[in-house]
Design goal:
mainly alpha, globular
């Protein structure tokens, strides 16, 4: 049975990740010289894709249907992008926001899967997908090479966080403590990968 306290935590995490992903999505769209409608479409896709896919797999209504406030969060991100005319290439602060979104979305994905009585491996996979899917679709819509597929360590960071969350829960940690541990690991590993240009090995031509 899903605990109400855990659901409230997941809802808070969903709002945080939605804002972070929407702000990054709107910024990328602005950088690609899209109009206001394009900004909203890319921001919404970046913010909602992962959580929507997660909930559909778990046979739960997409969270933005039951919580329309998520759409307000996306509009806020787009409005801020327009007001401050954020059209320059993504910088360190925006990348940190993206890392925060990745951490929060990954934790929310694996937490909801576990609370829905799914197995450990499916929970880990759903956590990873929740974290990376929005960024993948954002980049595809913006017609840029997806970050997930060729640089940095989005997928690896999400996997580390999802596994650490499951391990923490299995050894008896509370959901809040597991969230802090797992989210911190995702954020730290992703941030370090950006700073030191870490990436998975590639085939040489």
């Amino acid at each position: 049975m899903i605990d109400v306290t855990d659901l409230n935590l997941i809802l808070i995490l969903d709002h945080l990740s939605t804002f972070a992903f929407a702000l990054v999505g709107a910024r990328v769209a602005a950088m690609r010289q899209m109009d206001y409608g394009g900004l909203f479409v890319v921001a919404a896709a970046a913010a909602l894709s992962g959580g929507t896919f997660r909930n559909l797999i778990l046979d739960i209504n997409p969270v933005w249907i039951d919580q329309p406030s998520l759409l307000i969060v996306i509009v806020l991100a787009v409005v801020l992008t327009i007001i401050f005319n954020w059209v320059k290439p993504v910088g360190n602060f925006v990348q940190l926001l993206d890392s925060l979104g990745l951490a929060v979305a990954t934790v929310a994905g694996v937490a909801l899967a576990l609370e829905s009585q799914k197995g450990l491996v499916p929970a880990i996979l759903l956590g990873v997908i929740s974290g990376v899917l929005g960024g993948l679709i954002r980049d595809l819509l913006s017609q840029i090479a997806p970050t997930l597929l060729h640089r940095e360590t989005n997928g690896t960071s999400a996997l580390i966080g999802a596994v650490s969350y499951v391990v923490a829960i299995e050894i008896g940690a509370a959901a809040a403590s597991a969230s802090v541990i797992a989210g911190g690991l995702v954020f730290a590993f992703r941030s370090l990968s950006i700073k030191f240009n870490w990436h998975l090995p590639k085939l040489s031509p």
